[in-house]
């Protein structure tokens, strides 16, 4: 978690930047199971997210917009690692039946086929 929180703190990352990062991750046109139309819709949503993100910085008068966005995007590998670790932890909970939980967590964590 420090791989994510440390750079966020040092870059003075705002809530808006964190939301933009999550939107970029959410709108992934390479996600499994998307139709051609779905890929196009998601790619357009991602582009709009970037456009709004840059506009947000323009309104704030940020001078180094490309650097700010780039530094935020550099957090993606750390964020993906945290997600993978969380999925692995839930897999262990499932395999060893460590505690009972609602099965919707399995669906959220993509543990059910």
Automatic annotation (TrEMBL):
Q: Which SUPFAM superfamilies match?
A: Nuclear receptor ligand-binding domain
Keywords associated with the record: Receptor, Transcription, Transcription regulation
The record's listing under PANTHER family reads:
NUCLEAR HORMONE RECEPTOR
What name is this protein filed under? Answer: NR LBD domain-containing protein
Residue ranges occupied by any NR LBD domain in the UniProt entry? 1-112
Which segments of the protein form a coiled coil according to its record? Answer: none
